Amino acid sequence: MSVAERPQFTSEQIEKGRVLAAAGYCAECHTPAGGAAFSGNYPIETDYGVIYGSNITPDPETGIGAWSPEAFRRAMWQGVDREGRHLFPALPYDHFTKMTAEDVDAIYAYLMTEVKPVHSVTKAAGIPFPLNQRILQAGWKMLFFKEGRYENDLSKSEEWNRGAYLVEGVTHCGACHTPRNKLGAEEASQTFAGAHIDKWIAPALTAANPSAVPWSASEFTRYLASGAGVYHGVAAGPMGPVVHAGLRELPESDLKAIGIYLGDIVGAPDSDPAQSAVVQASLAAGRPDPAYRRDQGERLYATACAACHYNAEQVLAGRPDLGINSATRLDDPTNLIHVMLDGVSAEEGTKGLVMPAFRHALSDQEIAAIAAYLRDDRSKLAPWPDLDAKVAAIRAEATQ
Ligand code: HEC
Ligand code: HEC
Ligand code: HEC
């Protein structure tokens, strides 16, 4: 289809498409480091090899400029490209299939009009034979993929359904928060049960979330709108761009709807946890006491961390209480170690708030000692094994 043959778009449609493209993080997987937006060749590591996000600029030869709206819908709904070849599920079409035609068309309108065409050939996936045979994807789809738009659950409110539509569809939270089977498909029976992703852990978004204070609708909305909860952690690592490059574009009503949907999954009522026993106990455990500084981890914590993390009477926004948050309460210390090594940039967590990196200030053993103190003394949970080795491994992988 040539440019002249493309349908006309309204400015509302284009603006809607811009917001949805942000909420679907299309740019994250389709923009190369330092390169033009959506011009492709962003490498995605999978268990099977590297796959490159395609050039989805309107360049007719190397991008999707010659695609009709129908071809674009087929890619988003069925994971099939313009020539009819199966696309790899690294493109989360298993979620995008839930989107309405109106929403998919809006993204098409945005890409075709607002994005600069860039001539750049997308590299072939570095997946070894025979897994690189796209025809095998037909079998994968038969096993794990069900095409179909989101259907309202009539027993639930309109807001709940709006939240479910956004979470299950365009924002594809499950792509990171749901564990995958050996063939890379999300485990349908374990939706949002938590998963390893990009060398981080995406915690459970169900009642199994390890935070001491259960997540509630309003706390989800606050976290997704601002990058931080008050009684929960902050959006660091791969969750940073989900909030700051993605969800923040959505109107408040949509973030509220997402909170309502997720709050219902967790099943905890909205409440003010300030006076709760859990929070009060954690604050008490963080107060200096006569036995204070009895071990190395506690001493280091007092000098390196407490100035910014100590809360006297209540947990303040921007001063996370490390005793109650999932970073110290997950079975695995990975997220806590990442944050200690590399800090929290202005683009992660609360926008503009920075936590310094301790990569060059603290040794593996010292970071391990602080983690052990937070885990054993503050969260009062079973110790994490082999902490020194874990810190060393994460330190090495981040600089690769
Ligand atoms: C998690 C990463 C990821 C996200 C997020 C993502 N994509 Fe992709 N997309 C890919 C990968 C990887 C491919 C190439 C798949 C292949 O080669 O089989 C792809 C392919 C495509 C294609 C097919 C292009 C072609 O030339 O065959 C289209 C169209 C597309 N994506 C659109 C989108 C849109 C629109 C969004 C946002 C709503 C989006 N993608 C979000 C990873 C992603
Ligand atoms: C690209 C992968 C990715 C996507 C997509 C993603 N998340 Fe996350 N999420 C993570 C990671 C990794 C963390 C841990 C971040 C940290 O500890 O700083 C996280 C943390 C969270 C937390 C905090 C959990 C806790 O106990 O501290 C919430 C809530 C959350 N995500 C909700 C969502 C929602 C809702 C969506 C979809 C709108 C979503 N996430 C999409 C990777 C992702
Ligand atoms: C200069 C102040 C400062 C220092 C020192 C500091 N932090 Fe932070 N920390 C912050 C800020 C600010 C945030 C992010 C808050 C936000 O974005 O809302 C943060 C966030 C975190 C988080 C993520 C939030 C959560 O609860 O999951 C962890 C974990 C953390 N810090 C641990 C530590 C540890 C351990 C130390 C000591 C090694 C430390 N911090 C030292 C300021 C600091």
Task: Kindly describe this structure.
- This protein is 42% helix and 4% strand.
- By secondary structure, it is mainly alpha-helical.
- The chain has three domains: 3-144; 158-266, Cytochrome Bc1 Complex, Chain D, domain 2 (Orthogonal Bundle), CATH 1.10.760; 273-398, Cytochrome c-like domain (Cytochrome Bc1 Complex, Chain D, domain 2, Orthogonal Bundle), CATH 1.10.760.
- The strands form two sheets. Strands 1-2 form a two-stranded antiparallel sheet.
- Helix 1 (11-23) crosses helix 5, helix 3 (69-78) packs across helix 5 and helix 13 packs across helix 17.
- It is globular and about 75 Å long.
- The two termini are 43 Å apart.
- The model has no long low-confidence stretch (mean pLDDT 94).
- Bound molecules: heme C (3 copies).
- The site of one heme C has 23 residues, from helix 2, strand 2 and helix 3.
- One heme C is lined by residues 21, 24-26, 28-30, 44, 51, 53-54, 56, 64, 72, 75, 81, 87-88, 90-92, 107, 125.
Task: Briefly summarize what is shown.
This protein is mainly alpha-helical and 400 residues long.
Topology:
Blueprint: H1 11-23, H2 26-30, E1 42-46, E2 49-53, H3 69-78, H4 93-96, H5 101-114, H6 136-144, H7 158-168, H8 174-177, E3 195-197, E4 200-202, H9 217-226, H10 239-246, H11 252-266, H12 277-286, H13 296-304, H14 306-309, H15 326-329, H16 334-342, H17 364-378, H18 387-398
Antiparallel strand pairs: 1-2, 3-4
Helix pairs in contact: 1-5, 3-5, 7-11, 9-11, 13-17, 16-18, 17-18
The structure holds heme C (3 copies).
